[in-house]
Write a structure and sequence with these properties.
By secondary structure, this protein is of the alpha+beta class. The chain contains 17 helices and 23 strands. A seven-stranded mixed β-sheet has the order 17-18-16-15-21-22-23. Strands 3-2-1-5-14-13 form a six-stranded mixed β-sheet, with helices on both faces. It binds adenosine-5'-diphosphate and SN-glycerol-3-phosphate.
Length: 500
């Protein structure tokens, strides 16, 4: 009887379930988009029950598509949008507030206060992170402050916190397991990445009771078994990793210096730095990477908040395109952007700028700018943002990045990857399977349960689909980048009335 490895990939805009075989081939896939809520400018929320319902529905759909039985699922690996914060009642299992999504800016001013309190350096040293509303800590604090009675209930042990992986594990195990993994914990701004423990001083600073936090385990280990009521049989949950660390693993970036970039809702460039954390002087964060059983590895990360989301915006708000893939031929239909640049700083700018008050801008407009030029400027903005992060990464790590491994939904766009190679002056490689996030989660679960023997067996599955080789001269490249840097300067501090 054929056995499969199941990956549950709970992303920002959709929930996916993929069944893989031993070669890493996709045998079945099901995907469901869910609703994004924007209750106020800069706020982003999800309904945790909708996340759960969509995840369970794709789980069944993926199995039904190939008539797979529960006993054919060797194990489950979970990967997820990171930082997104859910707090629920331990007894009823009901969330006490919507999920506050990683993109949400509601706690920006709280971060200003944290900086004024002189906490920046401490946070950096302990957690590896640049203080920002992006991470979970201020989101948890906000819910405990704003939901009537929440802090008291948390102190009395009635409430639980979890990132999305933890929420799914809790639901999948029928409330038996409250746990997360090192990679997700390292995104909360409450976890000490050196001691691998929740940090008491930070918990005290944010007034968050430790009793509401999950147990933290390695990414590749058995967390528990699913409730047969939910999955039709008890299946081991044997891997968890935040989606970007899962993609790093799925791309087989096992050695120090290996780099991948995922082009999804945002763009996330990660470099494996091995068993020692490397700290950044150029606006990157230090984070925990997913390791095979028994090892802890670190990564440097540059997070770009808005990437593929720009393409969705063109489709849903501006009605410039009907679907994302249309952008490729539109971009190719014009020579360039006619001198225009789009900076999609819709929720501020992440790495390497970390400017909470930056906002989107479109500059260089002339009467000759057409829809195709606009769309091309939008697609090019993904590549420029990745360029800025990669430049910082080379400075921090001391490595020259000659090959960038690409994945994620928008990496299907050939124009984008060619432009990326041009603007980086580096080769960009796209693997046969761009679902590397899900694949990484499957690998982690498979290594913990013996479905795959070791990393070497996994590495043999990685296949190149296409390489993109730089094709523009240095003068043109520098000229384009100069325009981009000017555009960035226009976007910085836009939403902060006190800054000039
Ligand atoms: N051919 C394409 N060209 C440009 N962008 C694309 C293309 N296909 C998908 N996208 C963008 O990629 C994103 C979806 O990628 P995915 O990896 O599924 O994201 P996530 O995991 O963040 O939900 C969407 O924002 C979509 O607009
Ligand atoms: O869901 P994605 O792929 O946009 O990833 C979101 C990141 O994990 C946020 O840190």
């Amino acid at each position: 009887m054929e056995k499969y490895m199941m990956a549950l990939d709970q992303g920002t805009t959709s929930s996916r379930c993929i069944l893989f075989d031993r070669k890493g081939n996709i045998c079945s896939v099901a995907q469901k988009e869910f609703e994004q809520h924007y209750p106020k400018p800069g706020w982003v929320e999800h309904d945790p029950m909708e996340i759960w319902a969509s995840q369970v529905s794709v789980l069944s759909e993926a199995m039904n598509k190939i008539a797979a039985l529960p006993e054919q699922i060797h194990a489950i690996g979970i990967t997820n949008q990171r930082e997104t914060t859910i707090i629920w009642d331990k007894k009823t299992g009901r969330p006490i507030y919507p999920a506050i999504v990683w993109q949400c800016r509601r706690t920006s001013e709280r971060i200003d206060r944290l900086r004024a309190d002189g906490m920046t350096q401490k946070v950096r040293e302990k957690t590896g992170l640049v203080p920002d509303a992006y991470f979970s800590a201020t989101k948890i604090e906000w819910i405990l402050d704003q939901v009537p009675g929440a802090r008291k209930r948390a102190q009395e042990g009635e409430l639980l916190f979890g990132t999305v992986d933890c929420w799914l594990v809790w639901k999948l195990t029928g409330g038996a397991v409250h746990a997360t993994d090192y990679t997700n914990a390292s995104r909360t701004m409450l976890f000490n990445i050196h001691t691998l423990e929740w940090d008491k001083e930070l918990l005290e600073y944010f007034n968050i009771p430790q009793s509401m936090l999950p147990k933290v385990l390695p990414s590749s280990c058995i967390y528990g078994k699913t409730d047969p009521e939910v999955t039709g049989g008890a299946i081991p949950i044997a891997g968890i990793a935040g989606d970007q660390q899962a993609a790093l693993f799925g791309q087989c970036c096992f050695e120090p210096g290996d780099v991948k970039n995922t082009y999804g809702t945002g763009c996330f460039l990660l470099m494996n730095t091995g068993s020692e954390p490397v700290s950044s002087d150029h606006g990157l964060v230090t984070t925990i990477a997913a390791g095979s059983p028994g090892e802890v590895q670190y990564a440097l990360e540059g997070s770009v908040f808005v990437a593929g989301a720009t393409i969705q915006w063109l489709r849903d708000e501006l009605w410039m395109i009907r679907n994302a893939s249309e952008t490729e031929s539109l971009c190719q239909s014009v020579e360039d952007t006619a001198g225009s640049y789009l900076v999609p700083a819709f929720t501020g700018l992440g790495a390497p700028y970390w400017n909470q008050y930056a906002r989107g801008t479109f500059v260089g407009l002339t009467r000759g700018v057409s829809r195709a030029h606009f769309v091309r400027a939008a697609v090019e903005s993904l590549a420029y943002q990745v360029h800025d992060v990669l430049e910082a990464m080379e400075q921090d790590s001391g490595y020259t990045i000659e090959i960038l491994k690409a994945d994620g939904g928008a990496s299907a766009n050939n124009f984008l990857l060619q432009f990326q190679a041009d603007i980086l002056d580096a080769q960009v490689d796209r693997p046969g399977c761009i679902e590397t996030t899900a694949l990484g989660a499957a690998y982690l679960a498979g290594l913990a349960t013996g479905y795959w023997k070791d990393k070497e067996e996994i590495r043999a599955n990685w296949q190149l689909q296409r390489s993109f080789i730089p094709s523009i001269g240095e003068t043109k490249r520098k000229q384009k980048l100069k325009g981009w840097k000017k555009a960035i300067r226009c976007a910085l501090f836009w939403a902060n009335d006190e800054e000039e």
